[in-house]
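New to this. Help decode both lines:
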Amino acid sequence: METLNDDDLRQFMQTFYGYGNLDGRFWFIGMEEGGGNSLEEMQARLKAWKQLGKPELADLRDFHLLLRMPEFFTNPVKLQRTWMQIAKITLVAKGQPHGLEALRTYQQDYLGRKNGEICLMELLPLPSPRTSAWAYAQWSTLPFLAKRETYYQEYYPQRSAHIARRIQENQPKVVIFYGIGYRSFWQAIAGKEVEFQNQDGFLSGITSHTVYLIIKHPNARKLPHTYFEMAGAYLREHLQT
């Protein structure tokens, strides 16, 4: 059976963290990217990453155009569920219109761009369609990819520490972790000095440099349509103080 290039895969897992700009004001951090639906898709991801120079953060648009996913960035723009809510939070926080057309424009032209205001990072490096799926044991001969658990043990500590270090170095205005069920992971990255408080559906913590939120995942079911607007409104209020 054909497999991934393990040297490329190992380097990707060690050094690729997501999309956008480390100097951006708004950071969004998730557990892992969606995708990873086929060996061919993962091969294309590795190829795109190499074509872009093996960056720590790629340009979201450039990367996905190389993946032949133009529908998210060319007219008529298809809204991607997670990106749409990230765009909504950002636009509300800035006090800007956040209707569907505004969301399409933001996703198309601004979200995750290499010189933009957004940084999108993932705690774990490999995309997966769901947490119960694990095809990398068949796609790679790397021994720690035999199980999701050993993969996690291999990469969680170093990547968690790296993201925490990047936050301290860059001191973004906003850091939003999504996935409330992973609160302990987010607390470890934010640090003990960040005391999260319940804000009626999400958690917040504020330091002298950064407003932190822990929110529900944009793909979570049965969320009111105002949920992400409320998170953005909270940011707008506290970024002005």
User: Anything to note?
Assistant: The first helix runs from residue 6 to 15. The chain has one domain: 6-239. Residues 204 and 213 are 4 Å apart (CA to CA). The mean pLDDT is 97.
